[in-house]
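HUMAN:
Could you generate one sequence with tokenized structure?
ASSISTANT:
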Amino acid sequence: MSSVMQVWDAELGYSRAAIERRPDGGPITIDPATPGGEPMWGVWMTNPAGGTGVMIMPHSIFEWRSAAYGIDPEDHETLLDVVLHEIGIPDPANPPLEPDPAHTAIMEATRDLPTCWTPGVPDRDRLAAHLERIRLVKEHLFRMGPAPRADRQGALEFVGSSRVAPPDPLEPIRSTMRLDPVRVEAKRMALDWGRETSHRSVMPTFARKPPSTFLSAAQHEEGAVA
């Protein structure tokens, strides 16, 4: 039987940034190639047994899922639903140590479904397959749901916070999630190249090319570089 994971809060953070320190009064310059400083989300939750934990995810995970499955970057509800529940999708290469009927049921039902790495599959079919996995996770394992607002407010007051618990604990993500279509498109290109080159050699084109590669728009009709 599926259980409910209660969501209590969502908090914005950032990844470690390798920012060069400069003396006071010196020029303020940050190399655009400086890694880090990427937005990250911490989603606090509890399980039915009372265990607590935080799910930490980079904000870019929404860009990757949009690119991988053709999800509209503005469809925040689907993106959130996918990201929060796909952690329950069983990994066939890493089965549980003991037999688990729920995991077995999901794996048997999804064995023949395409993944984001299956070449030659339209986005709509990849998305339908992934949403079916998410549905099965909710049916057999767990689904996310908000903890009662009064309990969330009480927890904030207990730790001395002046914050007011919003009606929706995921409101910080929902109200600020804005995906850059350029970043999504770049990730889509990376996935396309990875899929196509996983099983054969591919001639780069203006639309399908390796990373850090830039090509002229001049092409043969079949798509090969002129």
The CA atoms of residues 92 and 108 lie 10 Å apart.
